[in-house]
Amino acid sequence: MTADDAGRRSLKRRLADGERLYGALLRLPSETLVEMAGVAGLDYVVIDCEHGPADMTALQHHLTAAAARGLDVLVRIGTGEPSLALRCLDLGAAGIIHPHVDSADEAREAVAADHYPPLGRRGFATYSRAGRFGTVTAKEHLAAAEDTLVVVMVETEKACASAGEILATEGVDAVLVGPADLAADCGFPGGEAVAAMTAEVHRTAVAAGRRVMTIVPGTEAARAAERAGADLVLFNMTHVLMDTFRALTGPGRAEEAAGRP
């Protein structure tokens, strides 16, 4: 969140006002895709620096393109990367998604990385892009930083069991259950088992007053997420794009292409 964004409502404030927000998860470095998401009317994009490239120069280009369209950017960093969280926030990201948060201690570490003292221990600087290159006061910069959105990912059986403590952590705003990692951690027990564990985490989040982010492969799943009460609906654009490309190839062509070296 940059100080010059203070005139518009942040994702955090919009969620507090009861809005449901729609975003796109992007793993392909392309400011054009970011701009297209804004033109289409999405509320935010997630730049994936965990499973995608963590190139700071490209990320800055993405943030600049998003700002031109009034689009907020969340960044998913890797596990235990507070220095990367700092750089993303200094560039103007609206918040950070932290993967593999298994305990309340790890949730507190995530919050500490994303917030200035006294809540956290983020390094303070106003000369970054988030501080309009030193042209805002410390007070203005701190006020903008209060709207940083902290999202923790629950991706293991241990994390599901600790969800109550994780989501009770001060400074945690939302939760995203990682269905693929959760399934892998549990030995791929089947979709129904993972869905049941996910639903229980979501109920815990609602009880704790936290927001629920749900990743979906397309519009049909998005409608189901809405019915289930998701606050942040996140389209997996790799899935969306591959489904679109496969649909364009015609019957049988996609399977034939998948078998080529």
Key words describing this protein structure:
single chain, 261 residues, alpha/beta, eight-stranded parallel beta barrel, 8 strands
Report Rg. 18 Å
Helix content: 40-55%
Separation of the first and last Cα atoms: 44 Å
Number of strands: 8
The amount of beta strand, in percent, is 15-25%
Strand order of the largest sheet: 1-2-3-4-5-6-7-8
Major β-sheet profile? 8 strands, parallel, barrel
Rounded mean pLDDT is 93
Helix-strand category: alpha/beta
Q: What would you call the shape?
A: globular
The topology string of helices and strands comes to HEHEHEHEHHEHHEHHEHEHH
- Note poorly predicted spans: none
Helices, by number, come to: 13
Protein described:
The structure is a single chain. The chain is 45% helix and 16% strand. The protein contains 13 helices and eight strands. An eight-stranded parallel β-barrel has the order 1-2-3-4-5-6-7-8, surrounded by seven helices. α2 (31-40) runs parallel beside α3 (56-68) and α4 (82-90) packs parallel to α5. The radius of gyration is 18 Å and the shape is globular. It starts with 10 loop residues before the first helix and ends with a helix.
